[in-house]
Design brief:
Length: about 90
């Protein structure tokens, strides 16, 4: 399934499509969070926050083929914001 098809299915409420996105990108999101020197708990917050941002923004994604870049950029921003709080 292409990224476009996966996103369209996720928007339609297809749990399998969401699961596919999570499976495909979660490891990379964790890597980004941990690369910022965050604890496991804080990294989990970053990953969860990133997925939440996707849920909130999925309907506005203009280039579904770049969803991976969008997720990684969002994770970097989330990690940066969290690390600045300390």
């Amino acid at each position: 399934m292409s990224d476009q098809q996966t996103i369209d299915a996720a928007l339609a409420g297809d749990q399998t499509a969401w699961d596919a996105l999570v499976t495909r990108f979660s490891g990379r999101l964790w890597s980004v969070a941990r690369a910022h020197g965050l604890s496991a708990a804080d990294a989990a917050d970053v990953v969860q926050g990133t997925w939440l941002r996707l849920v909130e923004s999925l309907h506005t994604i203009r280039d579904p083929e770049r969803i991976g870049s969008w997720l990684l950029t969002t994770a970097r921003r989330e990690a940066s914001l969290l690390s600045r709080r300390w």
